[in-house]
């Protein structure tokens, strides 16, 4: 909307900074691609499309939510807890202020979408899409903006000297914590739960899934779309599917990690919003710290994780997933303090970050919280460590330096961790728990076994038929005589049911 | 070439803007990767190498033609309002004579130009011969597209002089590319498996075709030849569907990110007023894409009646929705408010869905729906400028709004008419020469096998597995399929204890209750 500042033009300095911020924005937004690939590669092949669509959905939904309400809550003249100035909702008064809020909006939207997309990894493979979309709206529109208001929008934490440079608390802790709560409330993926219970009872034997398909009307809905000759084979095929939990495509995982890593340089570097800063806090030093910490985290994690978790063996010496996640937790950990630490501190932060990642995996395993892409260990535990690390290594107020206020400063870092976890934990748990009670949170167990791609994203295709033919050749019609099944006619449904079994 | 301005150095302001334009150029050129991934993921696996080759070749051919003639036709001083033709611009021969840095203009506009050819590539894929496609790219980059650019952006173009507004090329890039692709797809015809010919195909003739025989002759052993022939015939029943969803999603995100620069970079400058600044442009682009994506993925299955309980969401719809939103806001994004961008996004989704229904009705085979996204999106984008432009748009009470709207419509029809005419001429000639599309056997084998030499032992082994799977029915027909209970008896590991079965068989009751399943009582089969 036109306002008093509609015709303002950038000064030379502002223009230079704007180029930097715009390029950073694009690279941060590109992290969506990184997360999508990382998560897609880390889940089982039968759910790969569903995780991609979740990632795209949260970018779309997030942009609407952040435009309508989120930005207003985060930056609309925050007194201490939450903003509320009408100029900032739905960008209605962006031309009434001296600062260019269009620029800040796109930059912070890229951050907000990152925070939302972290959650999708923790909830992968078993969440109903609708409730995920609703959560995405809630998180980008309310939960995340409130934390931003505290830490960056001029709220109570910022007023008391709390330092979070590029969002280790604000973005990663929030996303990771929400994902952790969601994963805990959702419960483990079906096969994993089953596996664990069977192990408890009778050791390594008995890894079969047991589901009574005939009782499930979700299963009936899917099978109505399957060619009639294949009904029996389909069931057999489902039961005999490998129920192993391992990443289905390592190339995607590595590509995704590298995209994230490159984008992270701008995630941290671009957060200066400014190129006219002293060299001690400049983007160049920030990017250097980011690279060092990420590398240290990756190297330590890949050598330490298997040994600490007791999964090390001759045939399993190097774990690509641990390397990628280790690099990511190194990057997460340095995000909060990269403008005020020395490179040696970045190295230490990365190394300890990897230990936090391993500890996170262990703790999640002990609590039976199932996080398919290990987003909670990386972002939740990394977020906690990153906020603490700011208290230790900050070269102005950190505990390792001589500053009169260092005790108070460290105290506020800890208070921030506690408050953010309390806020995000409460709100997101409340949402997930309500959804669970309404039966909208988790997909049906039969669908979990079939896989979301077949059950919701297009049904059984020729590839699956071919696999079935390969495995169970007999009593199946040849492809030439095969016709597409008639969908949803009442006649067909009743016929299917009488012919079934 | 050296000229009077060879030694000119940019001022600070110009340096800032150059950085902005150059970064934008790089991102726009990166759209090639996005288009390749989107197209490669949406087509069948057997053509992936061909798509890769085609996209890189078309970028290269477009580069050459844009350098030889395109840039000169588009941006030389226009003398007759229709097409420019200053000799100093051809093959960059006298760029250093001018005060403006034409090297910068050239690379930026080249990135736009190659986007146009990439759009066309989607509509024509899986059946057009490579030389004809590359010829069309050369024709597009060397003449068709530059003339449109001369009208709308070139100094003194007839549309530009009359106040026509198109910031980043919703008309001249997307509409041109989309319409070109659509007409090409009509003339070349649908893919063999989608066409009516499929039912009355003569198998003997098919097996005698030269392309097929050529490939067959490269296989050494007779057994492999037999397997290849069986595999080849089984391709008649192939289902056409996207083979890699991750490529589609990745391509879309790359395109979306690049689009921020496609639009934002088109301001050429950071010294703009805030209401027209790159930042607002980028915000509009994000909003419009997001809204259109959501709207499409939710409503398209209902409107096209493809929704069923097993296909509730389609990632292709979401991706194309995001893209059509970006296409439509491309023209208006520097002069419309954020709420207008959202409305443009909603209507963009409707135009896209209408486009899909339209090509379905007419039987036009566009493998990745490029003409729905870019053609129909561009169509709406130009009209949207007429409505929502905050200086002269129809919804604002300003003088001259009728004329402005009229010029948008005139531009729209001029661009469509010109593109259609030129495309018909080119593909008409190719059709008459009968070189426009590959033979049936070529299409069935896939371009990778037919002309890129990917057939090797490994692939033959895969074919063998597939053929064996298809034939097992014939050999084992007498054998009854083992039932669940048979399997249970056979495999001890499968035999769960009774208590555990009890525990899981009723897992669904909490939510669904006892749902009767027809006349069958649940048979408690548990494995």
Automatic annotation (TrEMBL), chain A:
Annotated segments matching region Disordered: 476-501
Cell compartment(s), UniProt: Membrane
Membrane topology qualifier: Multi-pass membrane protein
Record carries keyword Protease: no
Record's keyword terms, sorted: Ammonia transport, Membrane, Transmembrane, Transmembrane helix, Transport
Record's keyword annotation contains Membrane: yes
A single GO cellular-component term on record: plasma membrane
Major location category of this protein: membrane
Domain Ammonium transporter AmtB-like residues, every copy: 19-198, 240-459
Protein origin, superkingdom: Eukaryota
Alphabetized GO MF terms: ammonium channel activity
One example of a Gene Ontology biological process annotation: ammonium homeostasis
InterPro entries: Ammonium/urea_transptr (IPR029020), NH4_transpt_AmtB-like_dom (IPR024041)
TM annotation in the entry: 15-38, 59-82, 102-120, 132-153, 165-186, 251-267, 287-306, 343-364, 413-433
Similarity-based family: Belongs to the ammonia transporter channel (TC 1.A.11.2) family.
Record-given protein name: Ammonium transporter AmtB-like domain-containing protein
Native source organism of the sequence: Stylonychia lemnae
Origin organism lineage: Eukaryota, Sar, Alveolata, Ciliophora, Intramacronucleata
UniProtKB/TrEMBL annotation, chain B:
Lineage per the UniProt record: Eukaryota, Sar, Alveolata, Ciliophora, Intramacronucleata
UniProt KW keywords: Ammonia transport, Membrane, Transmembrane, Transmembrane helix, Transport
Membrane association type: Multi-pass membrane protein
Organism: Stylonychia lemnae
Main subcellular location: membrane
Annotated region described as Disordered, given as residue ranges: 504-527
Record protein name field: Ammonium transporter
Localization in the cell: Membrane
Superkingdom as given in the UniProt entry: Eukaryota
Presence of keyword DNA damage: no
InterPro entries with a match to the protein in the record: Ammonium/urea_transptr, NH4_transpt_AmtB-like_dom
Biased composition (Basic and acidic residues): 507-517
Entry's transmembrane regions: 20-38, 59-83, 103-121, 133-153, 173-193, 246-262, 282-303, 315-332, 338-359, 371-388, 408-429
GO molecular function annotations of the record: ammonium channel activity
One Pfam family it belongs to: Ammonium_transp
BP GO terms, sorted: ammonium homeostasis
Sequence similarity: Belongs to the ammonia transporter channel (TC 1.A.11.2) family.
Domain Ammonium transporter AmtB-like: 19-196, 237-453
A GO CC term attached to the entry: plasma membrane
């Amino acid at each position: 909307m036109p306002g008093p500042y509609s015709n303002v033009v950038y000064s030379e300095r502002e223009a230079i900074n704007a180029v930097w911020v715009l390029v950073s924005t694009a690279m941060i937004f590109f992290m969506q691609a990184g997360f999508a690939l990382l998560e897609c590669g880390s889940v089982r092949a039968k759910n790969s499309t569903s995780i991609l669509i979740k990632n795209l959905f949260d970018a779309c939904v997030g942009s609407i939510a952040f435009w309508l309400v989120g930005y207003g809550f985060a930056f609309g003249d925050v007194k201490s807890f939450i903003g509320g100035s009408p100029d900032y909702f739905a960008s209605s008064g962006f031309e009434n202020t001296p600062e260019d809020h269009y620029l800040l909006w796109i930059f912070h939207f890229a951050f907000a979408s990152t925070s939302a997309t972290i959650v999708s990894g923790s909830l992968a493979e078993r969440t109903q899409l609708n409730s995920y979309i609703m959560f995405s709206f809630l998180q980008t529109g309310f939960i995340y903006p409130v934390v931003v208001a505290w830490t960056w929008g001029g709220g109570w934490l910022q007023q008391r000297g709390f330092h979070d440079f590029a969002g280790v608390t604000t973005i990663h802790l929030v996303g990771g914590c929400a994902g952790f709560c969601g994963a805990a409330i959702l419960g483990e993926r079906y096969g994993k739960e089953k596996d664990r219970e069977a192990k408890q009872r009778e050791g390594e034997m008995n890894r079969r899934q047991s589901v009574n398909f005939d009782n499930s009307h979700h299963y009936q809905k899917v099978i109505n779309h399957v060619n009639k000759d294949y009904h029996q084979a389909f069931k057999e095929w489902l039961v005999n599917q490998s129920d192993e939990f391992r990443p289905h495509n390592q190339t995607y995982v590595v590509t995704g990690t590298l995209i994230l890593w490159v984008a992270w340089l701008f995630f941290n570097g671009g957060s200066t919003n400014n190129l006219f800063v002293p060299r001690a806090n400049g983007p160049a030093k920030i990017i250097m710290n980011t690279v060092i910490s990420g590398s240290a985290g990756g190297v330590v994690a890949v050598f330490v994780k298997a040994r600490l978790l007791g999964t090390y063996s001759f045939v399993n010496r190097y774990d690509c997933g641990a390397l990628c996640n280790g690099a990511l937790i190194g990057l997460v950990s340095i995000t909060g303090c990269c403008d005020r630490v020395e490179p040696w501190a970045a190295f230490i932060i990365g190394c300890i970050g990897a230990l936090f990642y391993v500890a996170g995996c262990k703790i999640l395993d002990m609590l039976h919280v199932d996080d398919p892409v290990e987003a909670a260990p990386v972002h939740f535990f990394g977020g906690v460590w990153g906020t603490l690390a700011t208290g230790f290594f900050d070269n102005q107020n950190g505990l390792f330096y001589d500053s009169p206020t260092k005790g108070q400063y460290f105290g506020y870092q800890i208070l921030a961790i506690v408050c953010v976890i309390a806020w995000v934990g409460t709100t997101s748990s409340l949402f997930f728990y309500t959804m669970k009670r309404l039966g909208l949170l988790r997909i049906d167990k039969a669908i979990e076994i079939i896989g979301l791609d077949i059950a919701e994203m297009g049904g059984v295709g020729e590839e699956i038929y071919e696999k079935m033919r390969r495995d169970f050749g007999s009593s199946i019609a040849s492809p030439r005589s095969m016709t597409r099944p008639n969908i949803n006619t009442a006649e067909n449904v009743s016929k299917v049911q009488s012919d079934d079994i | 070439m050296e000229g009077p301005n060879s030694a000119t150095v940019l001022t600070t302001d110009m340096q800032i803007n150059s950085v902005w334009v150059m970064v934008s150029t790089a991102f726009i050129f990166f759209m090639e990767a996005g288009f390749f991934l989107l197209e490669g993921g949406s087509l069948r696996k057997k053509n992936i190498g061909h798509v890769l080759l085609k996209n890189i070749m078309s970028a290269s051919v477009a580069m050459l033609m844009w350098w030889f003639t395109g840039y000169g036709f588009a941006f030389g001083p226009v003398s007759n309002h229709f097409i420019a033709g200053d000799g100093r611009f051809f093959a960059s021969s006298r760029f250093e004579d001018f005060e403006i840095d034409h090297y910068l203009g050239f690379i930026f506009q080249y990135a736009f130009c190659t986007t146009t050819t990439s759009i066309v590539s989607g509509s024509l894929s899986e059946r057009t011969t490579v030389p004809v496609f590359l010829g069309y790219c050369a024709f597009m980059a060397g003449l068709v597209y530059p003339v449109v650019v001369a009208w709308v952006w070139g100094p003194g173009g007839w549309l530009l002089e009359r106040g026509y507004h198109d910031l980043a090329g919703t008309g001249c890039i997307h509409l041109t590319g989309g319409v070109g692709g659509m007409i090409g797809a009509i003339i070349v015809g649908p893919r063999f498996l989608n066409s009516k010919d499929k039912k009355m195909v003569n198998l003997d003739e098919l097996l005698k075709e030269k392309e097929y025989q050529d490939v067959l002759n490269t296989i050494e052993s007779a057994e492999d030849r037999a397997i290849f022939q069986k595999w080849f015939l089984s391709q008649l029943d192939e289902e056409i569907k996207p083979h890699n969803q991750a490529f589609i999603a990745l391509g879309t995100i790359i395109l979306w990110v690049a689009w921020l620069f496609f639009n934002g970079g088109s301001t050429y400058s950071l010294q703009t007023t805030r209401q027209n600044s790159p930042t607002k442009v980028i915000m509009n682009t994000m909003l419009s894409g997001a809204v259109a994506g959501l709207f499409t993925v939710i409503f398209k299955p209902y409107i096209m009646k493809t929704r069923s309980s097993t296909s509730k969401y389609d990632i292709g719809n979401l991706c194309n929705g995001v893209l059509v939103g970006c296409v439509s806001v491309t023209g208006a994004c520097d002069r419309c408010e954020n709420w207008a961008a959202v409305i443009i996004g909603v209507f963009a989704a409707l135009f896209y869905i209408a486009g899909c229904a339209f090509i379905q009705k007419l039987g036009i085979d566009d493998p990745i729906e490029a003409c729905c996204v870019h053609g129909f999106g561009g169509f709406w984008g130009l009209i949207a400028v007429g409505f929502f432009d905050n200086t002269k748009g129809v919804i604002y009470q300003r003088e001259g709004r009728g004329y402005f709207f009229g010029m948008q419509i005139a531009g729209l029809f001029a661009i469509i008419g010109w593109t259609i005419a030129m495309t018909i001429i080119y593909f008409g000639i190719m059709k008459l020469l009968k070189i426009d599309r590959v033979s049936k056997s070529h299409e069935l084998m896939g371009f990778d096998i037919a002309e890129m030499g990917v057939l090797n032992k490994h692939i033959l082994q895969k074919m063998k597995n597939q053929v064996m799977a298809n034939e097992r029915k014939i050999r084992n027909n007498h054998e009854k399929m083992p039932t669940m209970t048979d399997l249970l008896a056979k495999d001890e590991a499968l035999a769960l204890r009774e208590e555990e079965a009890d525990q899981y068989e009723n897992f669904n009751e909490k939510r669904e209750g006892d749902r009767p399943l027809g006349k069958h009582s649940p048979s408690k089969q548990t494995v």
